[in-house]
Write a structure and sequence with these properties.
Blueprint: H1 9-17, H2 19-29, H3 41-59, H4 63-84
Transmembrane segments: 66-84
Keywords: Membrane, Transmembrane, Transmembrane helix
């Protein structure tokens, strides 16, 4: 019977952040991947730029969401005021 694989929280976090990095680390652990002595700086810079833009996209909140949240707060305050009258 095959052994069940248990994933740790840090492995899940790594996979969610970058699936390619997770895959490469697993290959390296299995001895199937050997890094060259001199790193490929072009690909490294591309990866850094990708993650920088990814974080910016994830952090940006659309203006429509901000407006809806504001309207929800105002509506909630009006309801609270009407209830307490």
């Amino acid at each position: 019977m095959p052994k069940k694989r248990i994933f740790t929280a840090s492995e899940i976090q790594k996979f969610c952040y970058c699936q390619e990095q997770f895959r490469l680390e697993k290959l390296e652990e299995q001895g199937k991947l050997h890094w060259p002595q001199k790193p490929d700086t072009h690909r490294l810079e591309e990866g850094i730029e990708y993650h920088k833009h990814f974080r910016q996209r994830e952090a940006a909140v659309p203006k429509s969401q901000v407006l809806l949240i504001g309207l929800g707060v105002v509506f909630g305050l009006i309801c609270l005021w009407l209830i307490t009258r």
